[in-house]
């Protein structure tokens, strides 16, 4: 792995070094997001390159097994970048979780400050409800509901007609 890292280009090496623990610790959440985006794009580039060249090599070599060693360097590069992406993703998840916890604490503290702290009102005796005070039941008026009600009414009328016929 070290031999491959030493053979990376300067920009690739800089990208991999920027994903080391010390470099990641110095970044804030926005910086991590930008780095994650850069590393993900690099990973996609090398994976695509590996797949494209491996597919072309199969036709020339006559099989996937024979084409495998020719494209080893591209596969290893993609793996190094994938490991770097995993490091950045883990650190980003840690930062996002901490940020979410801080926002939650802030929201809860704000809700505690805003809640009603007035003394409770004295309890008053409730008056009894009279039948005239009650509202009639408001059933939802939809075509399906009307159909069910009409069906139920019709079934009741048919039952009553059978009884009356006896």
From TrEMBL:
Biased composition, class Basic and acidic residues, residue ranges: 104-116
Superkingdom per UniProt: Bacteria
Region spans: Disordered: 55-76, 100-166
Protein name as catalogued: Uncharacterized protein
Source organism phylogeny: Bacteria, Bacillati, Actinomycetota, Actinomycetes, Micromonosporales
């Amino acid at each position: 792995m070290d031999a491959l890292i030493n053979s990376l280009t300067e920009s690739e090496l800089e990208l991999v070094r920027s994903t080391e623990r010390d470099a990641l610790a110095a970044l804030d959440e926005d910086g991590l997001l930008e780095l994650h985006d850069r590393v993900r794009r690099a990973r996609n580039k090398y994976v695509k390159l590996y797949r494209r060249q491996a597919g072309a090599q199969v036709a020339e070599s006559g099989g996937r097994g024979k084409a495998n060693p020719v494209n080893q360097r591209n596969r290893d590069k993609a793996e190094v970048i994938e490991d770097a992406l995993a490091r950045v993703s883990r650190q980003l998840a840690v930062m996002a979780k901490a940020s979410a916890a801080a926002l939650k604490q802030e929201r809860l503290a704000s809700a505690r400050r805003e809640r009603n702290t007035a003394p409770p009102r004295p309890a008053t005796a409730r008056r009894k409800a009279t039948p005239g005070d009650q509202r009639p039941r408001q059933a939802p008026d939809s075509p399906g509901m009307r159909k069910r009600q009409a069906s139920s009414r019709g079934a009741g009328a048919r039952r009553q007609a059978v009884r009356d016929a006896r």
